[in-house]
Amino acid sequence: MEPVWTWGGKSFGYIDGEDLWTNEGKHVARFYKGDLYSPEGTYLGEVMDHERLIHCQEKKKLVGAPFKPYADQPAVKACSDFAGYAMFTGYEEFSIT
Question: Can you tell me the distance from the alpha carbon of 5 to that of 21, in angstroms, rounded to the nearest whole number?
């Protein structure tokens, strides 16, 4: 389990293998060719700086393979938040909504 934060520094959850989980124990994304996709197959974002989630606006039309999320897991204690990074041009904050 590798903890991850949003680009803005908020504790999001963790990566376990090829899967992204929230701190609340929800399976929300899966890696496909290095990018994160929702259960419906829509592009959600990627990992930069080894632990930060970010969304590339140019990739928003990419489509990955849909998948059935795993059952919810027990919640994990959120890691401490960090200071956010300056946003790159063409990118935006990671969000699953």
Answer: 12
